[in-house]
Each structure stands twice: as structure tokens, then as C-alpha cells.
């Protein structure tokens, strides 16, 4: 039987505010345990939550970027459950009236575009951390993280493959870091994903029973976990079994998902509007002020790169992976006047080198101005692509400009017809066999001859000219 | 509607309130009285009325995003039953 995969994703995006959502305690990561837990996070009697304005502004930014409805009146609710990392006995979240609803996010899978619905995004507080390993029969509780502002972004079950799921979370990640509302540090838990997976026989209308993989903090884990879960569900169904709705955890060591032990009443959260917090009212002027400050978004920038610089849609997608990368490319494209070459170099050599060295574009040793200088020398024929790579290597490990390296190492491409003709004549004289083969119709023999000329020129001869002159002489 | 003793036991468990079998009878009667009142309220025609999230018709005041709290861990932990290395210790909980 052919199976269709259905995936919906919830992402907890930590907002990069200085202070917590409901108190003036710091949100800085890595402080000593409980040194950033105020009376509000500790749920001392009589304390009251006071909402952080920046949380609302950042939620509006995301709402606008997702082309969503901003609910100008939205309401906080209590989600009730008992767990020591949340001393109040409830999490302040939003239920019936979240701040953002009905958004959409465009993803690119290969060359194919798809729009994923975003059901809602709501404001809530993060919980603390429990440490179970170090204490006999006890758990240690650190409430520094409690009260860190989160936006929970919930998608529609619109994804039909792991590739689409990955494209969605990556597009959302790009967007929240692009908007400057999240620091994007996945190791520190700034972007945590819950993935709902089900399968159904192809053509069936109703969804299959889903299982939710909780708390994934890397794209690689998401991919591994979703693939494993899909196969597990298909195997279970094909063996005549049934999938029970459940919450599962992914174990990176075994690569498997396993059921969480959960109590039967765990999901009865008994939401109700939080009487400690009045409805949040957002006036239109505030939304318009935020709209006016919005940066150009990745989708719009991709379209512009295609139109303005003639790059492919695929390249434009890669180039808008982050705002810093997009700005780097745009500078190179404009200064060098060579959009396509700039895209090839930024997505090719630069990306590969950064990846190899584990660096981000902000740490790139070759700045946009120096790369533009290199590209200009390729465009005007001074450098062959082979020589350009040689110059690039030298630039990566020095502060020198392309011109300075070309000068220093004598790497100028030889385009002098006389000089090339001389080398071609020598190559023809020295390789009668190849000449004979070419004349007998073996096109490949020409490459052997061209190779000899390139070797004689130490790689500096203009390859296009070499080919041309060779053909002319052998005609 | 009328709550069964099972319903009452479940509500008590969710709220982490210990009730004995005898108490369940009394608590059940009280809860049923409350539900009776709710039933009366639900009979009122509320078509076209916006649901109320808060009894006061004012909107929430917001604060600026500024750190105003300092570290008061020592004071807070002075009244905690058990602490170690800055962590609050609680009976083991693991999912």
C-alpha cells in the first residue's frame, strides 16, 4: 500500500528580550542557577504579572511577516498543570484569543514552492529546568529560564514529507532571526520544535492517528526523528497494528522515538482566562508603526534578486538564508556588477569554506569588497576560473586584495594571441598522435592538446582562447 | 447535569486536593449546587454579546523591557526546605 505522510509542527520561539515576559528579571543565558528567578517566577503569594511591551511588539512583527491577522484584542489564559519547574501550578499562555492567527509561510522544496498555513502564534512563558541526574531520589530545580518569553507558532497539518517539514522549520527559523526577534541559538533552546506525524493510505480523506515528537532542538534531529517515526507507523499499520495517539521523545543516541510515560489526565489543562491580566489591546497606530519599521522580508528579497541580478530562484533562496548573507551578496553583486558570478561564488566557494571552518558569514575572512575585486578580475578576463580559485585561496589566508595577489604571484591570465599561438604550435608539433586523432573525428583529442597548452602556460592561458586558436589551426 | 463521585474524585486529583470518600459526598453536593447555578446562567440568551475575558473594561498596561530585578537567591532560598548548589530540591519527578 502507498502511504501519505501528514505533518504539522509547533515551534517554541524564545524571544530575545532583556527581561522576562512578566517580571523585570534578566533572561540572559547561562547564569548561576536561580540567580535570575524573581518572586514572580517563584510564585510568591501576592505577586502579579506585568506584561513586557517588547513581547507584544515582537509578536506583531512576526504576525505581519506571516501576513497574518493581528488580534487587536487578545487574552492570556492559565494552562493548569502541576510540575515543579512551574511553581504557580499553571503556565500563563493564550488559548481562545491568541495575538496572531491565520498566517502563511512560503517554503521552497527543490524548485517547488508551497504555502504552509500558520494556524496561530501565541505569547506564553517558558518553564524552568529540572535536573534529575545528580541527586538521590530528588530533582534539582533551576527557575532562571522560567518566565522567558516564548511565541508558540503552530502550523496547519499542511506538510506531506520530511523535506517539506524541514523546509518549513528552516524558513521559520530564517524569518524569526531575520526579524531580530529571536537569537536563533538552538543549542541554548531558543528554537524548539514539536512535530506531529501521522500516515494515511494514499487517497484517504481522514487523517491517521498522530503521534507528537516533543522538544527537538536541531534540524538534523527533526529529520532523523520524523523519518524513524514515519517508518514505525507504517510498519505498525502494515503489521495489522494500530497507532495510539501519544507523545514521544526522540533519543539521538539510538535514533529512535519512544513513548513518554504520561499520566491519564495529563492533557486536561482546564484553561481559563487569567484574572491577573487584563485583555491586551493593540491600536492600529502601533501596528502601523511596526509595519513601517519592517525590513525587506526574505521572500520579497528573493524575488528582487532574481529580477535585479538574474540569479536563479534556487540561488536566491540560499542567498537569503540570513540577513547578513543577503547583505553580503548584494554588496558583492552591486560593487562587481556581476550578479550571477557573485551568486556562484557566495553559494559556492564562500559557503563551502565557511562550512568547512564552522564559520558564519559575519566571520568571513574575505569581506564583500575584496570578493568584489576578485569577481571583477574574472569578469574582465584577467583570471580564468582556475586561477581565480588559486587567488581565492591566497585571499582566504591573507588580507591582500585580488589585484595584489595577482601582481605578487604573477597569476595574470595570458590573453595575448601571439603568445598563445606560439604555445599552441608547440603543442601541435609535440603531439602528432593527438592531432591525427582529432582530424580523424575524435573530439576528445582536442582537450588533450588544450591541456598541454594550459600546462605549458602554467594554467595562465585564457582557456577559451586556447580552444579557439587550436580549432583554427587544426581546421 | 449532575456530577458523579468519580467526576468529583477526578477534579480533586487534578487540583491536587486530597478528599476522603466521605468528603466526596459533601463536596459533590456543593459542586452540583454550583453547576446548578451555571445551568441557570447558561439558559440566558447571549446571542450577539461579546464574551467577556475580564470583569473590568480596561486594557492591560505594559512595562518597558528593562531588567529591574537583582539576584535575591540567598533570601529566597533561606526559606526553601532543601537546596543544593543553588538549585531547589524537590521529590524526584520524571516523565
UniProtKB/TrEMBL annotation, chain A:
Q: Which HAMAP family match?
A: GatB
Keyword Repeat on this protein?
A: no
Q: Which PROSITE patterns match?
A: GATB
What molecular functions are annotated in GO for this chain? asparaginyl-tRNA synthase (glutamine-hydrolyzing) activity; ATP binding; glutaminyl-tRNA synthase (glutamine-hydrolyzing) activity; transferase activity
- Supply the SUPFAM superfamilies for this chain: GatB/YqeY motif, Glutamine synthetase/guanido kinase
Which Enzyme Commission number(s) are listed?
Answer: 6.3.5.-
- Partners and quaternary state? Heterotrimer of A, B and C subunits.
PANTHER family in the record: GLUTAMYL-TRNA GLN AMIDOTRANSFERASE SUBUNIT B MITOCHONDRIAL AND PROKARYOTIC PET112-RELATED, GLUTAMYL-TRNA(GLN) AMIDOTRANSFERASE SUBUNIT B, MITOCHONDRIAL
Top-rank taxon: Bacteria
InterPro entries named in the record: Asn/Gln-tRNA_amidoTrfase_suB/E (IPR017959), Asn/Gln-tRNA_Trfase_suB/E_cat (IPR006075), Asn/Gln_amidotransferase (IPR018027), Asn/Gln_tRNA_amidoTrase-B-like (IPR003789), GatB (IPR004413), GatB_C_1 (IPR042114), GatB_Yqey_C_2 (IPR023168), Gln-tRNA_amidoTrfase_suB_CS (IPR017958)
Gene Ontology BP term (one): glutaminyl-tRNAGln biosynthesis via transamidation
The family line of this record is:
Belongs to the GatB/GatE family. GatB subfamily.
According to UniProt, the reaction catalysed is: L-aspartyl-tRNA(Asn) + L-glutamine + ATP + H2O = L-asparaginyl-tRNA(Asn) + L-glutamate + ADP + phosphate + 2 H(+); L-glutamyl-tRNA(Gln) + L-glutamine + ATP + H2O = L-glutaminyl-tRNA(Gln) + L-glutamate + ADP + phosphate + H(+)
Ranges where the Asn/Gln amidotransferase domain occurs = 327-474
UniProt protein name: Aspartyl/glutamyl-tRNA(Asn/Gln) amidotransferase subunit B
From TrEMBL, chain B:
Q: Which domain of life is it from?
A: Bacteria
Q: Which catalysed reactions does the entry list for this protein? A: L-glutamyl-tRNA(Gln) + L-glutamine + ATP + H2O = L-glutaminyl-tRNA(Gln) + L-glutamate + ADP + phosphate + H(+); L-aspartyl-tRNA(Asn) + L-glutamine + ATP + H2O = L-asparaginyl-tRNA(Asn) + L-glutamate + ADP + phosphate + 2 H(+)
Q: Which family does it belong to?
A: Belongs to the GatC family.
Q: Which PANTHER family does the protein's record reference?
A: GLUTAMYL-TRNA(GLN) AMIDOTRANSFERASE SUBUNIT C, MITOCHONDRIAL (PTHR15004)
* NCBIfam families attached to this UniProt entry: gatC (TIGR00135)
* Top-tier EC class: ligase
Q: Which UniProt keywords apply?
A: ATP-binding, Ligase, Nucleotide-binding, Protein biosynthesis, Transferase
A GO biological-process term? regulation of translational fidelity
Q: Which GO terms describe its molecular function?
A: asparaginyl-tRNA synthase (glutamine-hydrolyzing) activity; ATP binding; glutaminyl-tRNA synthase (glutamine-hydrolyzing) activity; transferase activity
* Record function comment: Allows the formation of correctly charged Asn-tRNA(Asn) or Gln-tRNA(Gln) through the transamidation of misacylated Asp-tRNA(Asn) or Glu-tRNA(Gln) in organisms which lack either or both of asparaginyl-tRNA or glutaminyl-tRNA synthetases. The reaction takes place in the presence of glutamine and ATP through an activated phospho-Asp-tRNA(Asn) or phospho-Glu-tRNA(Gln).
SUPFAM superfamilies (UniProt xref) = Glu-tRNAGln amidotransferase C subunit
User: Subunit structure, briefly?
Assistant: Heterotrimer of A, B and C subunits.
What single Pfam family name could you report for this chain, choosing any that match? Answer: GatC
Q: What is this protein called?
A: Aspartyl/glutamyl-tRNA(Asn/Gln) amidotransferase subunit C
Q: Give the enzyme's EC designation.
A: 6.3.5.-
